[in-house]
Design brief:
This protein is an alpha/beta fold. It has 14 helices and twelve strands. It has helices at 11-14, 34-45, 64-69, 83-92, 97-102, 126-131, 141-156, 174-181, 185-195, 201-205, 219-225, 240-243, 249-264, 303-309, and strands at residues 21-27, 50-51, 54-55, 72-78, 106-110, 133-135, 166-172, 229-237, 267-272, 284-290, 315-321, 327-331. Strand 2 (50-51) and strand 3 form a beta hairpin. It starts with 10 loop residues before the first helix and ends with a strand. Residues 48-66, 198-217, 219-226 and 293-310 have low confidence and may be disordered.
């Protein structure tokens, strides 16, 4: 399998995130986020990492790469795209999802295909577990939490002792889940906050912050989820009608959800089209914004080394995605 094609300018932003961090990836109509999510996922599976010296690349010596590669596991939960889409796009970008599923380096949860089928089929069948895939067949919030928790436990299970597993949780299309189920943005944000072990002022002010309005949820399971998750990456839509001028209750719920995530995120990566229209050799613009106290370099890394690595700067770049999945990224004016 070929290594995921990560452009050098993009490498610092798709490397292994900081512990317990949230990265928000936003897109708009005509400029989707799937390629960027796959870039982050593929780069980490290929061992583009951030260590005590700054940024390292995919090259390692001898057998060290295999053990270091196996350190990162991915749980991908998608409410907007099915398994066929992710597998096909992964092939274009050099990610062998089938192989990673078999080795437990990737676990996939399908939140789109059967979420509203209302069948009596169990949430997780034996074939789902064996293949590394799970299908959500119930939209209840507690079912979503439990399914994600089970997938994380599955990903961390290891018969051999190759060291600690770092779980990256990718959540795609949670805004679609809110729109389709009628869940409030507060409910979903609270669920994410509990997973990330973050308690907002609203949660702290309540007498029982781990219960929803129906009193059905508790902290027994959710409080343990993000003790096992290294970092979280969430993709959502951020079109202007949904964010800048919400009118309907659905638009207002979407705005509340995305703004809440942006305040919690350590990094926001926004994808949009060109302001001047469509161009044959430019697919769009990606803007990287540091949030929540701003991204800080490791204390042991000198400023000159960080500058040399080109890491953790706020940037606006142009990108182009060719038909074979090759991604080119360059700065404006280059």
């Amino acid at each position: 399998m070929t290594s995921p094609r990560t452009p050098p300018l993009l490498a610092p932003y798709v490397a292994l995130p900081q512990p317990s961090s949230l990265t928000l990836v936003t897109g708009v109509l005509g400029a989707t986020t799937n390629w960027l999510m796959l870039s982050i996922l593929g780069a980490n599976l290929a061992n583009i990492d951030r260590d005590d010296r700054g940024i390292t690349d995919v090259r390692t010596v001898g057998g060290e790469r295999d053990q270091e590669e196996d350190r990162v596991r991915v749980v991908l939960v998608s409410f907007s795209r099915d398994w066929t889409f992710w597998k096909g796009e992964g092939v274009r970008m050099g990610i062998d999802f089938v192989r990673h599923l078999k080795s437990r380096r990737v676990t996939f949860i399908d939140g789109l295909s059967e979420l509203f089928t209302n069948t009596n089929t169990p949430q997780t069948t034996n074939s789902d577990v064996e293949s590394g895939q799970r299908v959500l067949r119930d939209s209840a919030l507690d079912v979503v939490e439990r399914t994600v928790l089970d997938a994380i436990r599955y990903s961390k299970h290891e018969k051999s002792s190759l060291g600690r597993k770092e779980i990256l949780l990718f959540l795609d299309g949670l805004d679609l889940y809110i729109a389709a189920t009628g869940r409030s943005a507060q409910e979903v944000n609270d669920m994410l906050g509990e997973w990330r072990e973050v308690r907002s002022a609203t949660l702290l002010a309540t007498s029982n912050p781990c219960r929803n309005t129906n009193g059905a949820r508790n902290c027994a399971n959710s409080a343990s989820v993000f003790k096992q998750v290294f970092a979280t990456i969430i993709a959502t839509a951020a079109d202007s009608p949904l964010i800048q001028s919400p009118i309907t209750s659905l638009e207002m719920a979407h705005t509340a959800f995305v703004v809440g995530l942006a305040h919690e995120a350590r990094l926001v990566m926004s994808v949009r089209g060109l302001d001047t229209g469509v161009a044959r050799d430019i697919s769009g613009v990606i803007r990287v914004t540091k949030v929540c106290g701003r991204l800080k370099a490791d204390e042991h890394v000198q400023a000159s080394e960080i500058s040399k690595a080109g890491a953790l700067e706020e940037k606006e770049m142009l990108f182009f995605i060719s038909g074979d999945g090759v991604i080119k990224v360059w700065e404006r004016g280059a």
